Amino acid sequence: MEDVSRVYVPSVLPRLAAALVVVALIGSVALVIIGVVAELGPILVHGDNVEHETGTIVAIGPGKDFVLLTSGGQRLAFLCDVQCRASLGHMQRHMRERAHTDVYYLSGPDKSLMALDVD
User: Is-above-0.85 flag for pTM?
Assistant: First the structure.
């Protein structure tokens, strides 16, 4: 009678190795695609002249206008009018929780900062 482990193990190892290579390949391709979408997404949505800033919201008002404190300690005042994609409640929660906030904006001719998207 032949030893089962000598017959079974050699036939399973190549299949297991192939499965692991396929999973690693799919995972790496997915990470590359996520990175590309993260970098190009805002440009595709808002255009190529949009700027980006991060920080925490320290003041809101009047209306949805707000002040962002950047990681460098700079305070930037943003105008958030009709084209601004932001919920006042969401912005208030970010301010209350001191949450990290991403702002995509356009610089106006009078050095005003017009927010397009706040998250």
Answer: no
